[in-house]
Write the structure tokens for this entry.
Amino acid sequence: MTKVANSKPTFMSPFDVKAPSGAEGWEQLYPYYALISPERREFEESKFWFFDGMHNPEPLYPFDTIMTENWWVGVSQMSSRVWALPPAIGLDQRIVNGYLYASPRIIERLEPRLVGWFSHARPFGFESPPIEYAEGIARFTGGTPNMPAYYQAREGYKVIRDVGPEVIRENARRQTELIYAGALERGYTVNSPREFERRGNHVTVDVPKAQQVKDELIRRGFVVDYRPGAGIRIAPHFYNTDDECRAILDEIAAILRTLP
């Protein structure tokens, strides 16, 4: 908290947050629309930005913000065009020093910096400026969809079709059970439902100093995730072997032996 001229306490301006030593210029790694913008300074400083430590406790990987951008659009659509939930009509997101911050917003106050034909209230009318914005989050849709990304996704669907959803699901049942039982045998806490039907394709294993263990697992080549207060999320896929499922549990044990 800081003091302003009228002596009322307030939070620090997002423009006053300094980059850590060695991270200067981090803004170049992220899309412009996700950054605190001097052009919107009055608006940015009028918002209450809270750190999204539940979903994104660590910095977002540069050029890999598609997941957070998807729920940015999705939440805004659902709360403005499907179920109206005033006064939080949608959400805003900003990235500061790599960390994700969010804030409720009133969409109709905002104007997109760049627009495409889908941003128009009548996209197929091909009307001359000035633009009449589409309702809700649709005004931020932009233009023609990102076709390269669609082609990448199409290949993923082909793989799933070739392997078969039933085969993938049954393999997930067997391997997550292997991880679940193996974690309990090693004395770890498991924060996932015991019944396979009640959980997704991952098992959340909690151990002492779980975040440090996760960092070391990634350094050693294991692809895992972590959530504060929950633990390390281990998600085997159809291309993983049973030996790999056992190996990650053994590696966790080996890492724990090295930690003070």
In short: The first helix runs from residue 41 to 46. The radius of gyration is 23 Å. Residues 1-6, 84-88 have pLDDT under 50 and may be disordered. The helical segments are 41-46, 66-82, 147-163, 165-185, 210-219, 242-258.
